[in-house]
Design a protein that fits this description.
The chain has 275 residues and is mostly helical. The protein has helices at 8-28, 32-36, 38-58, 61-83, 90-93, 100-106, 110-119, 131-149, 155-166, 172-182, 185-205, 212-218, 225-236. The longest helix is centred in the N-terminal third of the chain and has 23 residues, at 61-83. The two termini are 30 Å apart.
């Protein structure tokens, strides 16, 4: 008898389910992985991977949506635990590696994204992130809060600081954020297209193997999650965006306001199967 070999995405899904099970066990037993924040971040990452697998392997937009919400709820839970005194390691508390905020925006969950943004780090962690990476994410956090609550953070100053950090260099990422802040749709779309091209080149240059690089290429390389968040903020700012961009398929973009799963469902393996 012959057995079919799992596809690459099926392998990613199986590995993610296994890692999620281990992370949830660490959280429930208050292991050292839980107290540093590692287990929480691994659980969120597994849900993001499962979201990407659902969309890419089965065009399952509901599975994509649900797992993005699970990722966001996991992060929010961790940030609230930090507020209660959990001492997170820098890698797990820094803003630029906290992808779950982006997942909330991509899922169209503005209140959830705003809740996360309020609790994320407001200064960069030099030991684990570049300042320009922090500034990109901090800008998105503050813009989200401005759109959701009417807050008035000094967003131009954030972008000016970013320019100061990179000095005379030009950044398409900075360009897209400036256009977003100034609500210049044409400039936004052109800068976003440039960022998409830069990402494509990055993934083309990744060493081809059967390990992490291949997994990254097949998941994050195929769907530009930060791009989905940028598009969400542009749409919330009443800006006209293009119908399609490479790695930003229309299938991954749905209207905001869809009811999210219960906030605690991210901790249940039984909730991973979708009809």
């Amino acid at each position: 008898m012959s057995s079919s070999r799992p596809t690459a995405l099926e392998s990613v899904r199986d590995d993610s389910l296994f890692e999620l099970e281990q992370a949830l066990r660490s959280i429930r037993t208050s292991s050292p992985r839980e107290s540093t924040g590692e287990a929480w971040c691994v659980a969120a990452l597994c849900h993001r991977r499962l979201a990407l697998c659902a969309l890419l392997s089965e065009a399952d937009t509901q599975g994509f949506f649900v797992h993005l919400c699970h990722s966001a709820h996991a992060r929010l839970h961790l940030l609230r635990r930090q507020g209660e005194g959990l001492a997170l390691e820098p890698l797990y508390r820094c803003a630029s590696k906290a992808f779950s905020f982006v997942d909330a925006l991509a899922a169209g969950q503005l209140p959830l994204a705003a809740d996360i943004a309020r609790l994320e780090a407001r200064s960069h962690e030099p030991s684990v992130e570049y300042e320009e990476d922090f500034l990109f994410h901090h800008f998105l956090h503050q813009l989200t809060l401005a759109l959701h609550t009417g807050a008035t953070p000094d967003l131009p100053a954030l972008l000016d600081r970013w320019q100061s950090v990179i000095q005379e260099d030009r950044s398409a990422w900075l360009d897209v954020c400036r256009a977003l802040l100034e609500r210049r749709a044409d400039a936004f779309n052109e800068a976003l297209a440039e960022v998409v091209s830069e990402r494509s080149l990055f993934f083309q240059r990744l060493t081809r193997d059967d390990g992490p690089n291949d997994e990254l290429r097949r998941t994050e390389g195929a769907i530009f999650m930060n791009g989905l968040a940028l598009l969400r903020l542009a749409e919330l700012s009443d800006m006209e965006t293009w119908r399609e961009y490479p790695t930003l398929p229309r299938l991954a973009r749905f209207p905001p306001g869809r009811p999210s799963p219960p906030p605690s469902d991210w901790m249940s393996l039984e909730g991973l199967l979708h009809d």
